[in-house]
Amino acid sequence: MSGSASRPVRVSLRADSAGKPTGSDLDSKDVSASLTTSPTYITFTFDTPVSVSASTDYHLVARLTDGNSDVYIDRDNDASTGTNKSTDSGSSWSANNGELEFEVFEINNTAGEIYQSDASSNNFRANNFIGIAQEAISASSTGEVSVTGVATTSGLTAGSQYFLSDTSGSVSTSAGSQSVKIGQALSATQLLLKHDNS
Fold first, then answer.
1. Residue 178 lies in a domain
2. pLDDT in tens, the chain (198 residues)
3. E-assigned strand segments in the chain
4. What is the C-alpha to C-alpha distance for residues 31 and 11, in angstroms, rounded to an integer?
5. What sign does the CA torsion over 33, 37, 43, 45 have?
6. Count of domains in the chain?
7. Are residues 76 and 140 in the same domain?
8. Is 1 among the domain residues?
């Protein structure tokens, strides 16, 4: 998609079928954007959160919506060919070498619920660490989380400081992309929680 004039662009989320988008949009967002041959980022914010399932493939689909003859759909492709495109509203796909780079922000932030922390981005997952889960907690379930004192875990090095890791739900002796210290190991299985980040 290229051109210097402002064009209507829609980004949507679709389910996967054999590595291709399928079905109707799970949600979508329209913006007016100037599309150029130079790389640029355009922000799309869904009006309401989209519910997705863990370990399930989805597709981000971008398309022009002004009815011009050059309308096509790009989707991210894990293969080395880059993106695929469709000229028939997604019924069929063909290779379209080139990169469609994207980043998802603020996924899973429903008020009143807790989520695994990570330090990969400067967002609520890094900035609102509260404690260590003391048991495996599945989605929509309740469970025990230690927020003060000593939390029980495993694989620690006694005496070491621990930080949030860039890996969701993990800790490390070195800071992640965002430096968030969470405590000090008293033993291989005990972590003294500290929220002062100093």
1. yes
2. 444 567 888 888 888 887 778 888 899 998 887 766 677 777 788 877 777 777 788 888 888 887 764 444 444 444 444 466 777 777 777 766 666 667 666 555 677 788 888 888 787 788 889 999 999 888 778 889 999 999 999 999 999 999 999 888 899 999 999 899 999 999 999 999 987 665
3. 6-17, 20-34, 58-64, 73-76, 82-86, 94-97, 132-133, 145-146, 150-152, 161-164, 171-172, 181-185, 190-193
4. 9
5. positive
6. 2
7. no
8. no
Q: Which two tokens stand for residue 68?
A: 């011009």
Same domain for 31 and 91, yes or no, is yes
Query: Range of 12's domain?
Result: 6-97
Instruction: Give the residue ranges of DSSP H helices in 45-193.
Output: 124-127
Identify whether 108 is part of a domain.
Answer: no
Does residue 114 sit within a domain? no
Same domain flag for 90 and 131: no
